[in-house]
Amino acid sequence: MKVALLGCGVVGSQVARLLREQADDIAARVGAPFELAGVAVRRIDRPRDPALDPALLTTDAGALVTDPDVDVVIEVIGGVEPAKKLILEAMAKGKSVVTANKALLAQDGAALHRAARRNGVDLYYEASVAGAIPLLRPLRESLAGDRVTRVIGIVNGTTNYILDRMDSTGASFDDALQEAQALGYAEADPTADVEGFDAAAKAAILAGLAFHSRVTSADVHREGITRITAADIANARAMGYVIKLLAICARDDGHGVGVRVHPAMIPRTHPLAGVREAYNAVFVEARSAGRLMFYGAGAGGAPTASAVLGDLVAVARNRLAGVSGPSESVYAALPVHPMGETMTRSYIALEVLDKSGVLARVAEVFAEHDVSIQTVRQEGRGDDAQLIVVTHRSSDAALAATVRRLRRLDAVRAVGTVMRVEGEDTA
Amino acid sequence: MKVALLGCGVVGSQVARLLREQADDIAARVGAPFELAGVAVRRIDRPRDPALDPALLTTDAGALVTDPDVDVVIEVIGGVEPAKKLILEAMAKGKSVVTANKALLAQDGAALHRAARRNGVDLYYEASVAGAIPLLRPLRESLAGDRVTRVIGIVNGTTNYILDRMDSTGASFDDALQEAQALGYAEADPTADVEGFDAAAKAAILAGLAFHSRVTSADVHREGITRITAADIANARAMGYVIKLLAICARDDGHGVGVRVHPAMIPRTHPLAGVREAYNAVFVEARSAGRLMFYGAGAGGAPTASAVLGDLVAVARNRLAGVSGPSESVYAALPVHPMGETMTRSYIALEVLDKSGVLARVAEVFAEHDVSIQTVRQEGRGDDAQLIVVTHRSSDAALAATVRRLRRLDAVRAVGTVMRVEGEDTA
Predict the structure, then answer these.
(1) A390 and A403: one domain?
(2) CA distance A357 to chain B (A)
(3) How many Cα atoms occupy the beta-carbon half-sphere of B32 within 13 Å?
(4) pLDDT tens profile B225-245
(5) Phi and psi for A249 in degrees, rounded to 5?
(6) A213: nearest CA partner in chain B
(7) Which top EC class is named for this enzyme in its record (chains A, B) (predicted)?
């Protein structure tokens, strides 16, 4: 079994190392010996693991993926191009593909699945979501006889690290980001993580598998964490909440699904509140299985490489058996509903005038929009007078309209933090 | 695709219901319609789900499993016989088998795997361990490219419920057991659960998959929870520990594995300490993946049926593709070392004479056996004088010898609770 490796960065170098160090085990588990046929890199002359045979390196990825000797291509370059072109070329030549490329899968997974089916090859991508945590295989196979109702979790380690530091040390977003960068948890350009693009791609992949429907990143409502302040974190803490960036994929009451990524307050007693540092954790709720949780390292070279090699063994077994694994399952074709139709609860902090009748006026605005208030707390006096409102569940559109109306209210000096509240099952 | 169901109790009735209610989804996911060909029961005349067609019921399980029309047999009778005979008959006739039978798999899984291989059929058994929690498939497939070093967890819901009630209410073992029986968490004869047989069977299955070796229930060191007293629970609580029945499968420093089920004290801050009621949770530690946790409902009709149906979909897909899934992987053939060689830490409560020199004498006994003391606490005076010792890691045999010697010491009036301590990574 000959394997071509595209990319030799954080993940690729670990894949190469494990293929070498665990060659005997992997061969025994597959039933055939493995050989690394080549490693495509951008620059040959980078410093690399001295145990990696330099003769394997090539800058000609196109030639490597079409090499007639190669059986399986592992793609860990990331990004949409040239990864997509290379994967399609490999598949056209009958090679199976293992990839960790969440951005590509979430943007144009359909094209990859189509090509896999047409060429009778495998497309496996466990490593694209939540690193080493087995999540896609359980969704795709273990729960294939059940009806998944909701997937909710922390799928981005960088933002969890930043929010955890802000919560535990009182740091500002900028300071926590810098610390994450210094430790290698965040990239020099952190946009993909802190603006929620990475989590949104993962949410699209999870939703597609969970609901047997096609979901792309464009379908995902996405908000990042860059505007969260130390004051927000402190306010949340004072109310017994912690702020997490959540990915939420839910079947709604009608026949559709909602898929969203945004920061949310969750009670400190919720199991997701205890997920620290750069860890990931995902709840999967299914009608018969109930609530399952999966927890582990969501990123990093070795954990992601572990997921890649698990897929590689599966793909190799399939090739030896002359079959391909389960193909894309999108028969349910559930529509993705817009965020406005999603039912959520919200925390809203209002700076208000310190005079009588303000609460009544504010309550009236909520009532006019059919948004029911669960709790309201008055804090401070004079220029510091605040109203902290937590609502019951209502449509996100109604909440947005309420906030717009509140901004124009004379009694309201400013609308402060508006944040969704999750993890409480009260209506 | 025609399915025969053996057993229609707590799990079987839910399998029949889900096969009916989710027929369309399952057919779409497999790519072929499903039909329940028959349900083997011991007594036809029991009250049953009125939606189950009585014409499907039969007491002749032997005829059902050899029915030429049947493609897949689901076995949820439990127990070794007649389940084993029926499964082997079904396989001999070319039928694939999905089973939840942990006792049979742990006692004689090799015979079943051999029969599956010889007849070119599938043997799937996700439901045999931890109910709906996808655990076997991740071990067998997702981690196939990694090296699992340890599996540790709570795999028996009944005993977890009992210990949780003892911990949270101060109840005695007998009272907590009665409550569990009243709620249906424990059976009228609770032996299999409270003596650890059920957990030991699951540990054997987990260890076999994790270490690619053959492990049977006879290889598992097993201790139950029947001797745990309210005082033990209270003492553990006072020291910041909680008592859980753990299943632990670990690769040791040499080239072997240890597999054991016993009650242990774990710190209240450990994630397994927070697993309440009848829930299950399992940590899987692998060299590259790091520490993964799986959590969910470990038993119950619907969750177990969910796991059975997931396997059924996989088996059906394999049959349509004309292949069989991954077979037993025991190439590593690691020996199972006896409990005496296992390195553990222990909590030991000694009732001692209240006079000077006792601590020195006790410490000497530990030293003579090469067991290093981590902490020692003196409590009470006079007839209540106690020494509470927590040791560092040492071989279980050395600990046992130490305890035997302590019992004969004049200064020791009695050896009270001796319990292993887990979940702290200090040496």
Answers:
(1) yes
(2) 46
(3) 16
(4) 999 999 999 989 988 999 999
(5) -120, 115
(6) B29
(7) oxidoreductase
Residues A144 and A289 in one domain: yes
Mark whether A274 and A353 lie in a shared domain: no
Out of A137, A142, A312, name the one closest to residue B145 (CB).
A312
Neighbours of A104 (CB within 10 A): 24
Percent of chain A exceeding pLDDT 90 equals 89
User: What pLDDT sits at residue B299?
Assistant: 83
Q: Do both B169 and B229 map to the same domain?
A: yes
- On the question of pLDDT at A159 being above 50, the answer is yes
Contact A306 B146 (CB under 8 A): yes
What CATH number is associated with residue A409?
3.30.70.260
Q: Nearest Cβ partner of A317 from B290, B296, B326?
A: B326
Asked whether the ipTM of the predicted complex exceeds the cut of 0.85, the reply is: yes
A133/B28 CB distance under 8 A: no
Low pLDDT (below 50) residues in chain B: 426-427
* Mutation site for A-interface testing, chosen from B306, B331, B334 by largest number of A Cβ within 10 Å: B306
The answer to whether residue A112 sits within a structural domain is yes
Nearest chain B residue to A270 by CA: give it.
B274
Whether A62 is covered by a domain: the verdict is: yes
Given a cut of 70, whether residue A425 has pLDDT beyond it is no
A99: Cβ contacts below 8 Å, ≥ 6 apart: A74, A75, A76, A83, A87, A105, A123, A124, A125, A127, A128
A126 chain-B contacts, CB cut-off 8 A: 142
Nearest to B134 among A142, A212, A317 (CB): A142
Out of A126, A289, A317, closest to residue B303 by CB: A289
In this structure, the answer to whether residues B117 and B148 fall within a common structural domain is: no
User: Is residue A62 over pLDDT 80?
Assistant: yes
HSE of B268, CA atoms in CB hemisphere, 13 A: 12
Q: Do A288 and B25 touch (CB under 8 A)?
A: no
Q: Same domain, yes or no, for B140 and B279?
A: yes
Q: How far is CA B309 from CA A156, A286, B125, in A?
A: 31, 13, 11
Residues of B in contact with A144 (CB under 8 A): 26, 29, 309-310, 313-314
Residues 6+ apart with CB under 8 A from B95: B4, B65, B70, B71, B72, B73, B121
pLDDT at A131 over 80: yes
> Is residue B162 located within the same domain as residue B288?
yes
Q: Cα-Cα-Cα-Cα dihedral of A393, A396, A401, A407, to 10°?
A: 80
CA distance B28 to chain A (A): 7
Same domain, A24 and A118: yes
CATH classification at residue B98: 3.40.50.720
Tracing tokens 């009735």 back to the chain, one arrives at: B13
Q: A132, B292: Cβ pair inside 8 Å?
A: yes
Domain tally, chain B? 3
Q: Which positions of A are catalytic?
A: 202
DSSP codes joined into one string, B270-318:
SGGGG--TTEEEEEEEETTTEEEEEEEE--SHHHHHHHHHHHHHHHHHH
